[in-house]
Specification:
Elements: E1 8-13, E2 16-20, E3 26-29, E4 42-43, E5 60-62, E6 84-88, H1 93-100, E7 106-110, E8 114-117, E9 120-125, E10 145-150, E11 153-159, H2 165-175, E12 180-183, H3 200-225, E13 229-232, E14 238-239, H4 255-265, E15 271-272, E16 280-282, E17 287-288, H5 297-307, H6 322-343, E18 350-355, E19 358-363, E20 377-381, H7 384-391, H8 397-402, E21 407-411, H9 417-422
């Protein structure tokens, strides 16, 4: 049955949007507006007309985590006393960054706890799982999810913090019927697009497999949680620049395809909703402010061609000094392995990085000479200007990886989540 008073959600793009309460309070979520996050490669599709200044007229901001498609530091220039809602959990890299940027009004909420903000009740959650599909010792360190309530109307914004079926059971028991569930369905990242050990046919096959797995998992979550509505949410992007050639291999698809697959599988008690930029959903009544306009695949292809010649920021850098790069790579790899030991992570996988015409081994030991006969192994290749930025901490391995700037050769093709997490510690 429709509910009132109303809680609305205005969608902007990816995981960005604005909740508005019955008294007019506006909470902005995860502002990423301008193209070019993840070292330049991530673009919105459809392209946005919204500008960063267009989302400044809000009462508070919820930032789920540090990834730049949720917290774009380039354009995060709000007034310094604006309330910022964030999870208080673990190492809290986000809190540290916000304080460094001079933000003084942080509303920090611990895992599972509820805080009031004007007419809203807001509950935040730490990562529900280390990984939803693989065993991991470290796993997800930074994500959060939010339940926002306004006078009997409830929305669950999971963004990248995909729940488990057990989580959905607990959420339903605690909050009753959730009116809107906003759940990620995409596998944002380099697989299978950036893996040269896969043939073109294998990349297409893995693209299909990963998406089918994710949407089937999402279907199970919805059937367990049984919200009134579900919005396929977050992880919506395309690659621009020279990496645009990889778009057809990404582990992603449009929200239109996701919604169609969910409806094809059948949902017992839930209506599937899709929104375009500036569409506003009245969560109480379940009605949008205007009819939905489906995405245009021909326009998508033309837009990808249009942005294919764009340059990434690091492509304007000077080439790094070779000797200094090797010296710093050895130091950074030593520190990475020390961090792995402290976290209790170990692997017999040999990791190498291509440096000019040779390969340098960085795990399990540093060796300026690398044997291609080693197995298991993970061979990495990236622009040395970007590697220089990563070592100097002006870029980050994880962002470069998610942005598909790193090419991988994995033998055998077995995923070790903790190994990829460990590479995030490769820096000076």
């Amino acid at each position: 049955m429709p509910k009132s008073p109303n809680l609305t959600f205005e969608f902007i793009g990816n995981a960005c949007g604005i909740f508005t309460g019955n008294n007019g309070t506006r909470v902005l979520c995860d502002p990423w507006i301008e193209n070019g996050v993840f070292d330049g490669s991530w673009y919105h599709y459809p392209p946005l007309t919204t500008k960063p200044e267009d989302v400044h007229n809000v009462d508070a901001i919820y930032v789920s985590h540090l990834h730049p498609d949720h917290f774009d530091e380039r354009f995060f220039d709000f007034r310094k006393d604006i309330p910022i809602i964030a999870l208080e959990h673990g190492h809290n890299f986000l809190r540290r960054k916000l304080l460094e940027l001079g933000y003084t009004n942080l509303i920090l909420i611990k895992d599972g706890e509820t805080s009031s903000f004007n007419e809203f009740s807001i509950t935040l959650f730490a990562p529900f799982a280390r990984h939803n599909f693989y065993e991991a010792t470290i796993g997800n360190l930074i994500d959060s999810a939010m339940i926002i309530e306004c006078n009997g109307v409830t929305a669950f914004n999971a963004n990248d913090n995909t729940p488990t079926t057990e989580t959905c059971i607990a959420l339903k028991q605690r909050f009753g019927t959730i009116d809107l569930a906003m759940i990620n369905y995409n596998a944002a990242g380099p697989y299978p697009a950036s893996f040269v050990n896969l043939s073109e046919a294998e990349k297409h096959s893995e693209h299909d497999r990963v998406l089918a797995r994710n949407i089937a998992y999402m279907h199970d979550l919805i059937e367990t949680l049984q919200p009134r509505m579900v919005l396929p949410f977050a992880g919506a992007y395309i690659l621009g620049g020279q990496l645009s050639r990889l778009n057809s291999y990404l582990g992603t698809t449009t929200w239109d395809v996701c919604a169609a697959e969910l409806n094809k599988a059948g949902l017992t008690a839930t209506k599937t909703v899709c929104l375009r930029e500036n569409d506003i959903l009245d969560i109480g009544t379940g009605e949008p402010n205007r009819p939905y306009v489906a995405l245009d695949n021909e326009h998508l292809g033309n837009y990808i061609n249009h942005i294919a010649d764009d340059k990434y920021p690091y492509e304007y850098d000077e080439q790094p000094d070779f000797g200094q790069l090797l010296t710093d790579l050895e130091l950074a790899s030593d520190r990475m392995r020390e961090r792995m030991a402290r976290l209790g992570v170990s692997s017999d996988c040999a990791i190498s990085i291509a440096v000019h015409d040779s390969r340098v081994q960085i795990h399990p030991v540093f060796n300026a000479q690398f044997s291609a006969d080693l197995t298991p192994r993970l061979d990495c290749a990236l622009d040395l200007r970007l590697l220089r930025r990563i070592l100097d901490r002006s870029s980050h391995w994880n962002n470069a990886e998610i942005g598909c700037h790193i090419e991988f050769n994995r033998v055998p093709n077995d995923y070790q989540p903790d190994l990829h997490t460990a590479l995030q510690f490769l820096h000076l």
